[in-house]
Amino acid sequence: MANRTMNPPAGFSRRDLLRGSGAVAAAAAVSQEARTALAQEKGAKVASGQQTITLNVNGKDSQVKLEPRTTLLEALRYQLDLTGAKPVCTDGSSGAATVLVDGKPMQANTMLAMQAQGKKITTVEGLKDDAVPKAFVDCDAQQCGFCTPGFVVGVRAFLNGKPKASEEEIRKGLNGNLCRCGTYANVIKAAIQVVKGGA
Amino acid sequence: MAVEYSWPTKDKAQAIGKRVKRVDGMAKATGAAKYTYDVNLKNQLVAKGLGCPHAACTIKSIDLEPAKKVAGVVEVHPLKKAGDKIEFQGDLIVVVAAENEGAAAEGVKAVKIEFEQQEVFVKDSDLEAAKAAKRTSAGGGKAQLEKEPDAGENEDAFAKKEIERLLKESAHSVEGEYGIDAITHCCLEPHGSTVEWKDGKLTAYLSTQNVSQTAPGFATPLKIAASDVEVKCDYVGGGFGSKFAADYWAVAAAEISKKTGRPVKFMLDRDQELKIAGARPSGYIKVRLGADKDGMITVWDSEHWGTGGATGGAVAQTVVPYVYAPKNYRRNAVNIKTNNGASRAWRAPNHPQACAITQVALDDLAMKMGANSLDIFMKNLGTDDKPLVAGAKPSVYKAEMQRAAELIGWKDKWHSHGKGQAKGSVVDGLGMAIHTWGGGAGQSACKVRVHPNGDVETMCGTQDLGTGTRTVIALVLAETFGLPYESIRVNIGTSKYPASGASGGSTTVGGICESHRRAGQDAFAKIAELVAKKLEVDASKLEAANGRIQVSDNSSKSVSWKEACSLLGMTPLETDANYARGTKSNLSSSQVGGVQMAHVEVDKETGVVRMKKYVAVQDIGLVISPQQAESQINGAIIMGIAYALFEQRINDPATGAFVNADLANYKLCRLGDIGEFVVDFYEPESERKRGVIGLGEPPVIAPGAAISNAVANAIGVRVHPLPLTPQRVLAALKKAKA
Question: Which of A175, B83, B102, B629 has the smallest C-beta neighbourhood within 10 Å, fewest atoms?
Answer without folding.
Answer: B83
